[in-house]
Amino acid sequence: MRQTNEIKIWTGPFLVALINNFFLFIVYYALLTILPVYILGELNGTKGQAGLAMTLFMLSAIVVRPFSGKIIELLGKRKTLLISAFFFCLSSILYIFVASLSLLLVLRLFHGIWFSIVTTVLIAIANDIIPEGRKGAGLGYFALSMNLAVVFGPFIAIAALQWFSFKVLFIGLAIIVVIGFLFTFTLKVSEYQPQPLAVRHHRLSWHDFFETKAIPIATVGCLTAFAYASIMTFISVYAQTRGVFEYVSLFFIVFAAAMMIVRPLTGRMYDTKGPNAVIYPSFITFAAGLFLLSNMHSVSTLLIAGVLIGIGYGSIVPCFQALAIQSAQKHRSGHATSTFFTLFDSGMATGAFVLGIVSLQWGYSTLYILCGVVILLTIPIYWRLVNGKKEIFYGGPIYSQRE
């Protein structure tokens, strides 16, 4: 154990990959927050058109995600990173010049394509950089960069709009993502070739787009994302109905703080005791936070739920990512990553749609009770699909469940 903890995670390349990822997601969440306001106020659009702008981005990201692994395999990680990061930057810059709703919708569709590819390849590269035996901790810290962007992205966007115009904000976001792009040129990327026995075939098949070994944990991730959609999509509206809307930003702050505090502990537990030591308690904690939200009538309840959800959800997802990547051979890490996020993003999209119907029919309290039940039901599904197998992966080697 001592030797495992002494292996360095915080190397220069890891920091570059993490910072770049953080900048990408800051821009993503900032645009997610302010584009509906921009469409309604500046472009005289409707609420439906504002929703369509969000949907088109997510739709293009989900559709392209399965192809990301094949693109990485054909071009290599470094070339894929540079190309996709360049077009992500270009997309971010174009918001400065787009002044019509139709062009904005096209841009959202285009932007989603490159967001899908660049985020997939960055995770695959980060996995290669992180040393064996520290995958749980390393990927946990890497996932933290995405989760922190949930707080910083909207905060930067809303704060900036109090002082500057939308155009100035778009320029600022473009500068952020360009800085991240410049960092990518310093990354030294390891390229893994398939084993000689792996025959390259010319006819496309399921294997070209999905990593079969990652599907079980990706399915569990899909169900988890379905429940988490209730937080990303409905927490603000729900808080408004309870009279605590002004404290939603504080909810996300305690959410992020809880993740940051427990991340070193859960990462170490993953690497030394295995994923189950983190995943089962995190499921329970996540569900408890959702059930608490269902009966939320005060600021204290909202914030306590934020802490529980931050600990639970914030610990689960990095474990899922690590299990997905470690389920495949190294030259298939891109496929494993794209497979996981295809199902994860699909769970988010489906959750936003289905839970919207639930909220209209039965209210937000029922919505959060339902999501808590979904998480509890995911526990036996995880046991059956992933933990019920004879062998599981973590920290590099394979550990038998019978040992």
| Count of discrete domains | 2
Helicity, as a percent range: over 70%
Assign an overall shape: globular
Question: Strand tally, please?
Answer: 2
Largest sheet, if any? 2 strands, antiparallel
Under CATH, the topology of the largest domain can be stated as Growth Hormone, Chain: A
Portion in beta strands: under 5%
- Gap between N and C termini, in Å? 18 Å
Class inferred from helices and paired strands: mainly alpha
Oligomeric organization of the protein chains:
single chain
User: What is the top-level CATH class of the largest domain?
Assistant: Mainly Alpha
Name the CATH architecture of the largest domain. Up-down Bundle
List the uncertain runs.
Answer: 390-403
Instruction: Write the H/E string, N to C.
Output: HHHHHHHHHHHHHHEE
Task: Kindly report the spatial arrangement of strands forming the biggest sheet.
Answer: 1-2
In round numbers, the mean pLDDT is 82
